[in-house]
Amino acid sequence: MQSAIDNTLDIQQIRKDFPVLDQQINGRPLVYLDNAATNQKPTAVINALTQYYEGYNANIHRGIHHLAEQATAAFEASRRAVQAFLNAKHWEEIIFTYGTTDGINLVAQSYGRRFLKAGDEIIISTMEHHSNIVPWQMLCEEKGCVLRVIPVDDNGELIIEEYEKLLSERTKFVSVVHVSNSLGTINPVKTIIDKAHAVGAVVLIDGAQASSHLDIDVQVLDADFYVFSAHKLYGPTGMGVLYGKKAILDSMPPYRGGGEMIKEVSFEKTTYNELPYKFEAGTPNIADVIAVKTALEYMDGLGKENIAAHEHDLLKYATEQLGELDGLRIIGQAKEKIGVISWVLDGIHHQDTGVILDQQGIAVRTGHHCCQPLMQRFGIAGTTRASFAVYNTRDEVDRLVTGVRRVQKMML
User: Among this protein's residues, is 370 annotated catalytic?
Assistant: First the structure.
């Protein structure tokens, strides 16, 4: 059955842009449905990496020779591209990190250590990835802060009324995920931000799953911090972004010490660099930063609204088809979701499901998805998760459903 979106995007042509998809796994054509963990990279992004290393590999900012100036220009062009992608007001508000986790840790260690004190309350949610739980727990242990948690209902949606009850003059920081990596739930982050600001709290939004699926405008959201990773928006691994409001970033001390983040160093005193460089110590991940601009251009060429519509079509179709299987229970039935579907099978461990699907060439994710508290909330050890990207098709969903039926036949 063909997707109604195929008239807008030529999916078969798009698939040719992703060389990794053209292979067989265990004698079957690869069906890659693990995009929430990382998605595949188009040839244009791969070429951008190669072109840097083959054509103008050099360290940036401090060199005056031609290659260094070329690399610096490409590196800073990516910063401007990310600024436009997020609609940040100032280019200095874009900090390059090594990923979402690194960005959250930067904020927790720099802002948290400077401004939070014993008795202050930090609010997170039940559906957070471990990377948005553990750094705040570490900070609470060090500073004596108190961690509060927004509960989740049976549909996998945050209970905003309970969030409102948690807010008080003691609330100093709120850190929540924009889109759940395990459920696909799209959280009402604008509402969350506004309510936090009303009590004077600062807000960080984990946009790791949202960045490739939703339009992000940090000025409209009024987010104080927003973090995401390049590898989940068709870019390279090991590269991420921290957006922060300029006034807040200016008030924060450096997170790491070393080269680039300084103006002058003596044994008596060091003077730190300006934004954004005071948070970018040492030689950065130059090639991957340069390549993220290409990834953003690739998505822009397809049209983010077209990508989102195609993925939504796949989610709707997969939900209908999997929902017809006896003994299968979908975990997370939020009204607003991206292309992520997680389920459990009666009497079958999720790891067995993943192994048998892999034998059929189908790549899915199994386990707790770095969301153990959320799994505990639903009384399960983990799920099987399929997550979609622009290059996936309804035919691949059909193969997934057939594969799950085979799992049930083999295991029951």
Answer: yes
